[in-house]
Design brief:
DNA-binding; alpha+beta; five-stranded antiparallel beta sheet; HTH-like; four-stranded antiparallel beta sheet
């Protein structure tokens, strides 16, 4: 069988919106779209109505699917309205992606973890597509296929709608929505109406990691995207990503990524991110 050279990555990018934005495609895009919400909130038309998108919401749209995206002021963690939305997006065409898309029923929206496996793959595809001189375009195609496998795995791992799992996902959503501000485990537990010990147990059982570790992961991913794509000072990045101090942020960032926030920003710029 001939290698799928007919997989085309037409565009891969990252958008950070601080002003209202609205786009409508009544007849849908001409190509396939994979979009991951990473920061803030926005709305997309799903099942005939505009539904709220939050970090971790992955959109999957085939050619011809009606598409509408609306970014406007939404209440933040303090209840104040603010325009803030960040997302990775990839437009695709070709027989390979068509065959993959039609292999199983795909929802328009899928909740995925903001892990390095997912976010990092989006980023690598984008960086490969940005190379001015790219003698090996197959690399971005391999990354795209890895992304599709990650999506498949998340589809297979979607939890059964049991009550404990429902509570665990509410805790996870609370963390993702409030990670940019200081909060206690008690706050998350109270939000879903259970004790802290039960919240800690359910979360660990459902996701295989602690609530504290997951909060740190979300904050580090949030800070990393802001370092790369925003002009914020590093101190402001730390503060706006929920870290109590810059010194603590510097310590955990270096431990996770092997370099300081300043070095990471410079390396990202040198690589054309």
């Amino acid at each position: 069988m001939k290698e799928e050279a007919n997989l085309q990555i037409l565009h891969a990018g990252y958008s950070l919106h601080r002003k209202p934005f609205h786009t409508t495609q009544i007849d849908g895009h001409e190509n396939y779209l994979i979009r991951l919400q990473t920061l803030g909130k926005c709305r997309s038309r799903l099942n005939g109505r505009l539904e709220l998108l939050e970090p971790g919401d992955l959109l999957l749209f085939a050619p011809g699917d009606p598409y509408e995206l609306k970014i406007e002021a939404e209440p933040n963690s303090t209840g104040e309205p603010a325009v803030s939305s960040g997302d990775y997006h990839i437009f695709l065409s070709g027989e390979w992606i068509k065959a993959w898309w039609n292999r199983r029923p795909l929802p328009h929206r899928l909740k995925v973890p903001l892990s390095e496996g997912i976010v990092g793959t989006f980023r690598q595809i984008m960086l490969e597509q940005r190379r001015i001189s790219n003698p090996t375009p197959e690399i971005s195609e391999y990354y795209l296929k890895i992304l599709c496998m990650e999506i498949e795995r998340n589809l297979l791992e979607q939890p059964q709608p049991t009550y404990p799992t429902y509570l665990a996902h509410r805790l996870k959503n609370y963390i993702e929505e409030n990670a940019s501000t200081p909060f206690k485990l008690e706050d998350a537990a109270v939000h879903v109406g259970i004790s802290v010990s039960r919240a800690v147990h359910l979360f660990k059982q459902a996701f295989g990691t602690s609530m504290i570790q997951y909060t740190l992961d979300v904050r580090l991913n949030m800070a990393r995207e802001r370092i790369i794509f925003s002009p914020l000072s590093l101190e402001h990045v730390a503060e706006s990503s929920g870290f109590p101090s810059y010194n603590y942020f510097h310590k955990v960032f270096r431990k996770r990524f092997g370099m300081s926030p300043k070095q990471f920003r410079q390396t990202s710029r040198d690589n054309g991110a």
